[in-house]
Amino acid sequence: MKLAGTRALVTGGGRGIGRGISLALAEAGADVVISYRRNGDAATSTVSELEARGRRTTAVQADMGDEASIRWLVAETVDYLGGIDIVACNAGMHYRTPFLEISPGEWDDVLSADLRGPFLLCQAVARQMIVQAKGGRIVLTSSISAEVAYPNLVHYQCAKAGVRMLMRGMALELAGHGILVNAVAPGVVETDLTRQSLANPETGPERIAKIPLGRPGTPQDIAAAVVFLASQDVRWMTGSTVTVDGGQTVR
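User: That's the sequence. What structure does it adopt?
Assistant: Structure tokens below.
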């Protein structure tokens, strides 16, 4: 297994894409701590699946918009696993709100969870990796929305574009410590949160028609890219974004 003996932290690891990433890292041999914000039942279920794969694992409740909570999450992970070799910074949120109706509070909520949170988490994890002196792998979840505008997602798009530049800046400054920093940019992915909208007969077929490969992605599609970026197969790649969107942004 290409990740045997490694220690991973996955934020938002209890459901959706985060769950897929957690399971894929475990199947590749990593022990995994997952964080969740609200859905403890989903996190508990994912932990059970990880344990069934023979991995050391636990779930930690944490708020990616709160600095103290993020520091506590990293400390708990280090205490449980003995260190951190891989972080998949996946947790986030979004609202679909027309630009003219976005309130300052909603703007702040999205930017806090989707950009400030990843900054604080990656800073704390990078400091830990430097102390360990063994390098590491940081993989952030961006989005094709970082480069293509879609209606009613201005705040989310700004945050994800910020994540992409955060990744590039970290890659530059952390290279000397052997820490490789890359990102995945998912397109339309079917999860428990998106399944209903994709099944909508008025809008679902139109969204899927924009994907050259003819289907929405799965969490496993995104997770495969994360496992690759987290592995020792990647030795001379940092500051890059791997787009996993079925070809949607090729057009």
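The two ends are 36 Å apart (CA to CA).
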